[in-house]
Write a structure and sequence with these properties.
single chain; about 170 residues; alpha/beta; Rossmann fold; about 30% helix; globular
């Protein structure tokens, strides 16, 4: 498991990325703190080499809704409450997405609930079509043990970007 992806350069035109972000997983739980969301968004964008033409889906609980909608205004934002509510909203987004022409998928959550979705993306690899799936999580403790076995790459926020340093919810 690597701490953060290598510093990306310009995204080649041949790369089509889609992002599925469980933001409450990256902020160590629901938070209304705009600064925490801004910091995570900057980190996420830099680590994934996210560009304006990438599709991005962000899910959160209703407690984080305003902050997420403010900071991730260019993304499709879902909020759903209850146990694993944001996870289920993100799973719905994954199941409804057209992956034609996509060659890089980012799942920003270490939750094991995403394992079947990642396995399904791997099953779509046929011929020259290849979808690489990378997982980002807050830290090793947030990564389900099976994810490193099925994802192409798993990254966690570096110690210098720990939840304490970022001022995120604990």
């Amino acid at each position: 498991m690597r701490l953060v992806p290598p510093s990306p350069g310009p995204k080649p035109d041949s790369i089509r990325q889609i992002h599925f972000v469980d933001i409450d997983n990256l902020t160590a739980g629901p938070t209304q703190d705009l600064q925490s969301h801004r910091i995570v968004r900057q980190w996420y964008t830099a680590c994934t080499n996210m560009h304006d033409d990438d599709l991005c889906f962000v899910a959160c609980s209703h407690q984080s809704g305003f902050a997420v909608a403010t900071v991730w205004g260019d993304a499709k934002v879902y909020w759903r409450s209850g146990e694993n509510g944001a996870d289920y909203a993100l799973l719905d987004a994954i199941s409804e997405t057209n992956f034609e022409g996509v060659n890089q998928v980012w799942v920003a959550s270490g939750d094991g609930i995403f394992i079947p979705g990642i396995e399904a993306l791997h099953a779509m690899r046929t011929g020259p079509s290849r979808i690489d799936v990378s997982v980002l999580a807050l830290d090793d403790s947030m990564v389900h043990g099976t994810l490193p076995l099925i994802a192409d790459q798993v990254f966690t926020i570096a110690a210098s970007y720990s939840s304490h340093t970022l001022g995120l919810a604990s």
